[in-house]
Amino acid sequence: MGAERRGRASSRARWPLAMIVALATSRAAQAAPDADLVEALDAAGGADVVAFALPAAPRAPRVRAATVARASVATILAVLGDPSHFGALLPSLVRADEVARRGDARVVAWELEVPLFNLSGTLELRPRAGGVELALVDGDFSPGRVVFEAAPRADGRATLAIDAQLDVARSSFFLRRIMARSAWGEPAALAAAAYVALRATALRAEHPRDATAFRPTAPFAPSTPGQPDGRALFAPPLAALAARGAVAAVSVAPTGRLASVAVAVTTGDAPGALAPRLADPRSWRAFPGWGHVQPMPPTPTSPATVIVEDSIPFVDLDATWRAEPPPRARWWTAIAGAARGAWFGWDVAPAGPPTAAVFTMSPRLPATGSIPRRFVEAEPLLEHGLALALAFVDGVSTTHGGAR
């Protein structure tokens, strides 16, 4: 009976997969990722781009993101078009079973195994020109909609984009508790999930013959403070996205590990007022979970330091931060604590208002406790996704308020 059922499932999978490949080769020109996102990706200097919509009440948020994959459009869409292969896309996806058909949609029951909790539900997988749509119709994150689109690039690679809008509050108690620490917790959680899905799809398309999903395996290592330079987000295509909400650039090291995350936001403050405020460590109290921030003045033999004590359970963010010397004012490096080697800082555009500010960080989250480490061990791309979420929350909370 089991072999017969698998045989029927295999025969069902063949024609939709062929249809997806045909769509990619014959109709891809009819649909492509959003032009503003592609322009921002081209201006990001090799980093991936994430665009946030910031409604007045950030509920059921929307996040768009784009990356460049060393694969053809047809290969990317073949990866996305067959739910029987989703386990090789996301190893933590322990179930992705086609249970019915509704028109041209394949109804898929899914379950995601995450440390401390599981998520599950039902989605409809629908082919579309140049992409696929996943409509979450029941269970966690529903109602929601995730669209993947791909387009060829002149160099033979492909632009891959994701557009996600989910009810992330409809999830586990643990996840809701984390998100409740900030008014921006829900778009942050959505961004982490969307980015992991985006990079996982690109990596699977780049390594389609591997038996399991390809993931970075190099040791975690601190990156150079301020590198890559977050001021690239002041470029017009990226600044335009920041003006409509927020935009992030996720820089990946050659090893595949995270290098840094930069988040740009736009405020109504003048540069002359905004820059000193962001240079003051007392502004760090806006970071969710930073319970005690004690600046220590510089001495003739040492630069200024700041002692931080956190108020977040299961995570150790207690640290001593040292000011970087000029010209990197407003930049700080952790010299003591679990996250030693982490760094963050601000850049402020010289013109305004409105004034663009960029918050860049490399938080070394896997070093800050067993819970973050278990998440990243289960899904290495969460090193990038969780850092993206943290940088977004910290940057937007400091400039727009919203810490709880």
Structure explained in plain terms:
30% of the residues lie in helices and 31% in strands. The protein is an alpha+beta fold. It has a 16-stranded antiparallel beta sheet with strand order 3-4-5-6-7-8-2-1-9-10-16-15-14-13-12-11, with helices on both faces. The termini are far apart.
pLDDT < 50 runs, ≥5 residues: 1-29
Helix content: 25-40%
Total helical elements: 10
Shape annotation = globular
SSE order, as H and E? HHEEHHEEEEEEHHHEEHEEEEEEHH
Largest sheet features: 16 strands, antiparallel
The strand line-up of the biggest sheet is 3-4-5-6-7-8-2-1-9-10-16-15-14-13-12-11
Structural class: alpha+beta
First-residue to last-residue Cα separation: 54 Å
Q: What would you report as the Rg, rounded to the nearest angstrom? A: 22 Å
Total DSSP E strands = 16
Strand content: 25-35%
Mean pLDDT score, rounded? 86
